[in-house]
Amino acid sequence: MIEWSLWALAVSAFTSATIWVGTSEVAFVAFVMKFPDWAWAAFLVAGVCNTLGSLVSYAMGRCLPEKYTAKLSPDVLARLQKWGAWGLVLAWLPVLGDALPIAAGFLRLSVWRCVLALAAGKFFRYGVLWINIFQAA
């Protein structure tokens, strides 16, 4: 049961970070509440898979032909150029978070800096959720 639940959390976390709709926060909270002894595993699985999903979006942006980048918000592009890869720490935000990795890929920002920034933001989000779950309990 736990293994299947971790796989479901992994899929949810991965898809939530792409242009597909996902509900990783709900899946994470549900998993941790049902299996509190496995919270560390859920934290790691959700953080890693959500980061990997954002890297797929980064790769999509890197492959985008110039004509399709008109759909990317000029504001998002300008901010990412200003902040660099560290702007991706905010990629966990709804709506904007989906566009940030795509824009970073299009701008050819350093993939390793992007990985670090994405992971920092994603793990921070799940950490805050985890802390709130145990404070509420």
TrEMBL record:
Residues 25-128 form the VTT domain. The keyword NAD does not apply. Signal peptide: none annotated. Keywords: Membrane, Transmembrane, Transmembrane helix. InterPro entries: DedA_domain, VTT_dom. The keyword Transmembrane helix applies. Pfam families: VTT_dom (PF09335). The chain crosses the membrane at residues 6-31, 38-60, 83-107, 114-134. This is Inner membrane protein YqaA. It comes from Kingella negevensis.
